[in-house]
Every structure is written in C-alpha cells, then in structure tokens.
Design goal:
With 311 residues, the protein is mainly α. It has two domains: 167 residues, Orthogonal Bundle (Tetracycline Repressor, domain 2); 124 residues, no CATH class. It has 16 helices and no strands. Helix 11 packs antiparallel against helix 13. The longest helix is centred in the middle third of the chain and has 32 residues. It starts with a helix and ends with a helix.
Length: 311
C-alpha cells in the first residue's frame, strides 16, 4: 500500500493539510458523509432488513439502519481524508471541504474513526454482533481495500471494490436473522454486478478528471471502446440476475414484471453505449442505472410490506 500512502505524503504542506483559519461548519461535516451515497446505502440496507424472515423490534430496526447510515458516512469521511490530494485535482470534487480549505485532514480522520467505532459498537451491543462484524468489514473494505489499495492501482478498482457498496442489504438482513443466507447474497450480487456499468458510464464522461488525477479508471487505461464493451458485458450479466429473486421464490410477479422490463431497457441502453461514440448515451445509462436499482429494491420492499412476503 506504499504507492497511495506516498502520494498522500507528497501532498503534505499543501492546502489539503494546512491549518484553516475558521472552524469547519456543520455543512462541511455533513458533506464528508457523502449524503447521496449514504441515502442509497440506507435504502438498500432497509430493504435487506425487510426481506429477512422473522421480525425485529422497531427500535432495533431503526438502530440497525442508523448504524448502517453512520457507518456509510464514516467510510465517506475516511475516503475524503485519504483522497484529499486527488480530490483537489478533479472538477467534481475540488469543492469538498478538505481541498477547498474549509477543513483539516486531521478533522476528517478523527470524525471518520469516531463514527466508525460508534456505529460498529452500537450495532453489536444493541442489535447483534454478526451485523456489527459485517458493518466493520464493509468500512474496512471500502477504506483499505478500495480507497487505499485498489483505486490508484488498477482499472478493476470498481469491480473488486464494488463489494463494499453491495454489503448494506446483507447487514440489514443479518440485523434481523443474525445470519447470512441466500436471499441476502442475491441482493449483494445485484448491487455488485450493477456497480461496474453504473460507474463506468460515469467515467466515460468524467475521464478527463480521472486522467488529471492519475486514477487508472478503465477509460483512461484501456480506452473508451473497451470501456463501452465492458459496460455491455456486465449488463448482459445484470439483466437476468435481476430476475433471480423471482425464480428463487422470494419475489412475486410484480417484481418479475418490473425487473424484466427494466432489465431489457438497461440492455438497450448498454447496447447504445456500446455502439455510440459520444457522452450522451453514457450519461443516459448512468442516470437510468440509478433508477433501475432503486426500482428493483423498492418493488421488493413494497411486495414484502403489502403482501407480507411471497413464500
């Protein structure tokens, strides 16, 4: 892990590490949590909790979701602490609190570590230690495996690192059952295989930023043509996988209709990206991919609430 650590060390003395004149504001600390990412994490974690067999006391359920949210925010803060140097070089991240000079890196580090310890401890003491262990694994994976080790080293950073974003429904499921079963693993797989076409679509129209920051995203290293091909190949895997909850018996016909229709639309969008050359198709697929994942998980949750489960 010496390369990213060296990159950070080389940035010592720059604006991302110097003392700031004014204390960081509440909004700066909120921004550290990556609230947009947190909202998706909380949502998928909640659906994982709903899909679990059995029941959980509402107070424990709310506690579990809050711990997942705080753990996600902690991961975001630690990510911004470590990546302050590259954030300063990218247009879409240069106004984050550290590169913008509104916060010291030490404040972000302390904030992230405190939230991590608090979220894991409360999850274990109040809910169960299986969910707490999974939460700890998620934070560790995102910070050390993805942020520190993979992101600056390999164009497969999104593929391997995508596991971190796929854990929340498993944590929610484990909060109820204290175990990890096949239903939870299918939800994990859905997010895992959704991540590459989602983020590679984004990277197609932000590749200049990644190149400037020295991040080996697939379009920077392998080129645009290969990236479009990989997006389509992962979409070919994702579309049928979206129907797995129905065929495995824990989702109903409403889910099958939604997953089948949206999976077909996803494939059409990915094919347009494959055959396209501009940024428009990539932007369209990126936006649709967010809706796709939300719709699948929302339908699973609504079926469980309205029908009391499918089994």
């Amino acid at each position: 892990m010496s390369k990213p650590l060296t990159a950070t060390a080389e940035h010592q003395g720059s604006s991302t590490n110097s003392l700031v004149d004014e204390p960081a504001s509440v909004s700066d600390f909120w921004q550290l949590l990556k609230p947009r990412v947190m909202s998706l994490v909380v949502f998928t974690g909640f659906i994982g909790l709903l899909m679990a067999p059995g029941s959980i006391h509402p107070v424990l359920g709310i506690t579990a979701i809050m711990c997942i949210a705080v753990g996600a925010g902690a991961s975001g803060a630690l990510n911004m602490w470590f990546e302050a140097d590259i954030d300063a070089k990218m247009k879409r991240t240069k106004n984050r609190p550290i590169p913008a000079g509104r916060m010291n890196r030490g404040e972000a580090l302390g904030f992230g570590v405190t939230l991590s310890i608090g979220a894991i401890s409360i999850m274990g003491l109040v809910v169960n230690w299986v969910a707490a262990a999974l939460l700890a694994l998620t934070i560790f994976y995102y910070v050390f495996i993805y942020t520190v080790w993979l992101k600056r080293r390999t164009p497969q950073n999104i593929v391997i690192g995508g596991a971190a974003g796929a854990f929340p429904p498993v944590i929610g499921y484990a909060a109820v059952t204290g175990t990890v079963e096949m239903e939870a693993l299918v939800l994990f797989a859905l997010i895992f295989f959704w991540t590459p076409p989602h983020f590679w679509s984004l990277s197609l129209f932000t590749r200049a930023d990644y190149k400037k920051a020295g991040i080996p995203m697939l379009p920077v290293v392998a080129g645009e043509k290969e990236t479009r091909k990989q997006i389509f190949l992962y979409s070919l895997l994702l579309a049928p996988l979206g129907l797995a909850p129905f065929f495995m018996g824990f989702a109903g016909m409403a889910y099958a209709a939604v997953a089948g229709t949206l999976g077909a639309v996803f494939l059409v969008g990915a094919f347009r990206v494959l055959k396209g050359s501009g940024e428009a198709t990539a932007r369209q697929l990126f936006k649709f991919s967010i809706f796709y994942l939300f719709a699948l998980f929302a339908t699973l949750g609504l079926e469980r609430i309205l029908m009391g489960g499918v089994n």
